[in-house]
Amino acid sequence: MKKKISIIGIPMDFGQSLRGVDMGPAAVRYTGLIPKLRALGHEVIDSGDISIPIREDDSGKAGFAEDNYLREITQICESVFEAGKTIIEAGRFPLFIGGDHSVTVGTVAAAAHSEPTGLIWIDAHGDFNTPQTSPSGSIHGMPLAVLTGEGHKTLVNVGQPGAKILPDNVVLIGQRDLDPVERQRLKSFGITVFTMREIDEHGIRTVAGKALMKLAHLKRVHLSVDMDALDPLEAPGVGTPVPGGITYREGHLLMEILADSGKITSMDLVEINPILDIANKTAELAVELTLSAMGKSIL
Q1: Could you say which of 42, 140, 152, 222 is catalytic?
Q2: Fewer CB within 10 Å: C terminus or N terminus of the chain?
Q3: Which positions of the chain have pLDDT values less than 70?
């Protein structure tokens, strides 16, 4: 099915101490995402980048405090929400390119602003920490908790007050690095998690099918892809790589199955760090996976 796609870049790296993911949108555009989407028959508009304030040099700070850049992240996510909401109301498919994973506070708020929405979260991590449970204090490890109503109130209230997603409408795929308290929180909230063990034991096809069945009652599903879900051998250009991740072919098959379902109505792609990449390998894979999610097939 051909889509009317609007691309929004979010060159933000305020959610973590490591620099570089702010260059992700440029790397993805450089790799030819837009002409390749058009070659599939989609109508594509590049809506440009969300305006991002200059990040102050924090090299002299002792550690990375849990409230670092909270004001800036909130401001940016509000802008992302407004831009995404406008695109959705125009009947278009928003494709957000980050940026660190905290941008999803805005992307998912936009996707879910008018009706119940499902969320497929592909990531090596759970991103379900709060300021009280996070070992690092980095906000890019908290957005899923924020979206379910937990954490910094300014972030929880981005777009509109309160939770944006019901825990029962969330499916996580590819996790292999969860903090101890975060693991317990995921269980207590009843969130469906398909870790790398489930992928190893049952295969990505079965996991994808179960994820779609879990969200079958919903008309809208947002797809969030953190490139660190992929094995570092496939995607070295990420800030928090974890060995033993999703393989190249597993990633493509997952995207292809999701595309075949016709359920995905919005998407974000995050955590591409060109500084840490090798010959733009991660950005190239990110573009290839996006094309598969938008309907590209082998035959």
Answers
A1: 140
A2: C
A3: 57-67
